[in-house]
């Protein structure tokens, strides 16, 4: 089962000659979740040959142009190609007003249903659950209300140890019941706990997107042990004051959050255009957390299946 | 004196993996005029290392998203870098309302003055004149009101034939008067016509941008003898019915306009994404007008100085 993130844009507000502003695509089991949708998102999707029609859910972190200005163009394109399936957008309620205004201005009639889900940006809660993937909102600290997103695979039903099926001659009804969490009571009244029967062949995977944000200790508890954390690192450590004033993080701060949360891998991005290259920012993050990479547009980061023994 | 056009986007409404939607930059004597501003325009400007701060005038042909959706992002970027100089936008009056709404939504306060010039889209008239360059609106035929733009160098003052300065011992006052169009009256009452004295070392150059439009014979008279004509050719000849329904032109129609208007060179563009490559469209245009090129993103087309002998 695929679980991978594609970076569509890795710059902060000012795009550069090699970096577009913020947008990520998470492919979770061939469902595509678009996270932020800056100007140029649809071009990056084309370039990277990502099938746009598979995008049914768009999550917007906050209402700055460098995270949202690609929405009207993307929706127009969906309309031009005659999209039929519903499109869900999860964002601050104010975005709905803006979208309604602009879609009325630019588009005669949508060929599909646009369903808007208002996200309460200061709350940590489940905002999406399709039985396979669950998404939680992560309150961030920025100049305007902002929310990160945690995407997590849900556990399916466990496997049952074959040898025990034989040993206790389990019926299909008993197997189903045990898979759903029941213990087994033997004819002599002895109880065999559910745990003895069940196991999971792999662990669930999780990806957290945290941008834009100041350093926020609150995040640590909310993203504990994710496999992949994207945390903005707009600035190098020397520019920590600038980070504070503008509501952003430094490389060191991003890596500290990673390190405290116990995440497996860190991607930093949302780089200020003031840095001609991001080697220094990456180096500073790696000093605190070695397993860090610097986002590049077009990059795909796979989270491998975590098999249990 | 530079007079060149850079193609920022050559696709029609749906961008492709190699083509962004419509935007051109005309460099006329190091003044940069932006013509249309689709999504991604600011990225193309960055990539092509075009100095954004030199853009003071933006001309918008019509209010479809694939010609306008880059405006809010570009203006946001101007604001972030602390632009001070006025920015002039020439477009259908309705765009002002849309821009005002979106700039209020996304930007706290502009660091520069935005000056909006409403273009009457069904009129052929001068809409800009800075003494060196003049811009005329060109009524087009599209599904919504649309205007092309004709950019023309203005003639400066003529040169005076040196040998006649000596022959008639002209004073500085007389030279200035002749340069400004007067004839010369000799002491004996004889009149030497202005034409005898004056000449221009080069001819003025002109560029016409005609997109989006149906085939329109009216254009022919308005763009006569331009050096460079950009005319949309969204479709190949076989798709002429589709062109008519959608308010666009075929390759053959674009080349016919060029041919009838006596222009020197034709650029076709605004290609539908249905064509994997545009060889056929180019071939069809060339059958009618040989000196045709197919627009490519990033391409620069120079109009050389036309020296008189």
Describe the structure.
Two copies of one chain form a homodimer. Chain A is α/β, with parallel strands linked by helices and 309 residues long. Chain A folds into two domains: 261 residues, Ribonuclease Z/Hydroxyacylglutathione hydrolase-like (Metallo-beta-lactamase, Chain A, 4-Layer Sandwich), CATH 3.60.15.10; 39 residues, no CATH class. Chain A is 28% helix and 27% strand. Chain A is built from eleven helices and 20 strands. In chain A, strands 6-5-4-3-2-1-19 form a seven-stranded mixed sheet. The first copy, chain A, has a seven-stranded mixed sheet with strand order 7-8-9-15-16-17-18. The longest helix of chain A is centred in the first third of the chain and has 13 residues. Chain A starts with a strand and ends with a strand. The mean pLDDT of chain A is 96. At the A-B interface, helix 1, helix 3 and helix 4 of A face helix 1, helix 3 and helix 4 of B.
Briefly, what is this?
The first copy, chain A, is α/β, with parallel strands linked by helices. Chain A is 28% helix and 27% strand. Chain A folds into two domains: 3-155 and 200-307, Ribonuclease Z/Hydroxyacylglutathione hydrolase-like (Metallo-beta-lactamase, Chain A), CATH 3.60.15; 159-197, no CATH class.
* CATH fold naming of the largest domain in chain A: Metallo-beta-lactamase, Chain A
Shape of chain A: globular
Q: How does CATH name the architecture of the largest domain in chain A?
A: 4-Layer Sandwich
Largest interface: A-B, 31 and 31 residues
Number of helices of chain A: 11
* Class based on secondary structure composition and strand pairing of chain A: alpha/beta
From the N-terminal CA to the C-terminal CA of chain A, the straight-line distance is 18 Å
**Which percent range describes the beta-strand content of chain A?**
25-35%
The name of the CATH superfamily of the largest domain in chain A reads Ribonuclease Z/Hydroxyacylglutathione hydrolase-like
The total beta strand count of chain A reads: 20
What is the count of distinct domains of chain A? 2
Sketch the major β-sheet of chain A.
7 strands, mixed
């Amino acid at each position: 089962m695929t679980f991978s993130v594609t970076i569509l844009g890795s710059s902060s507000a000012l795009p550069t000659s090699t970096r577009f502003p913020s947008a990520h695509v998470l492919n979770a089991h061939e469902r595509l979740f678009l996270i932020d949708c800056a100007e140029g998102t649809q071009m990056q999707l084309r370039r990277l040959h990502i099938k746009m029609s598979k995008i049914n859910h768009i999550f917007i972190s906050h209402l700055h142009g460098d995270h949202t200005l690609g929405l009207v163009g993307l929706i127009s394109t969906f309309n031009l190609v005659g999209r039929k399936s519903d499109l869900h957008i999860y964002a601050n309620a104010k975005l709905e007003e803006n979208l309604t205004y602009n879609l009325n201005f630019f588009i005669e009639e949508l060929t599909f249903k646009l369903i808007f889900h208002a996200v309460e940006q200061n709350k940590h809660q489940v905002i999406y659950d399709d039985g396979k993937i669950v998404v939680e909102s992560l309150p961030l600290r920025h100049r305007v209300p902002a929310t990160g997103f945690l995407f997590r695979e849900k556990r399916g039903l466990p496997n049952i140890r074959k040898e025990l099926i034989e040993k206790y001659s389990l019926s299909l009804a008993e197997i189903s019941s045990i898979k759903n969490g029941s213990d087994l009571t033997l004819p002599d009244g002895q109880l065999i706990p559910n745990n003895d029967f069940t196991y999971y062949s792999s662990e669930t995977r999780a990806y957290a997107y945290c941008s834009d944000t100041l350093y926020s200790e609150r995040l640590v508890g909310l993203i504990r042990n994710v496999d992949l954390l994207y945390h903005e690192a707009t600035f190098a450590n020397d520019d920590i004051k600038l980070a504070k004033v503008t509501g952003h993080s430094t490389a060191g701060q991003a890596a500290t959050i990673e390190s405290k949360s116990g995440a497996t891998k860190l991607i930093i991005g949302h780089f200020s255009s003031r840095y001609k290259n991001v080697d220094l920012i990456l180096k500073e993050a790696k000093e605190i957390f070695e397993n860090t990479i610097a986002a590049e547009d077009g990059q795909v980061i796979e989270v491998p299946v975590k098999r249990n023994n």
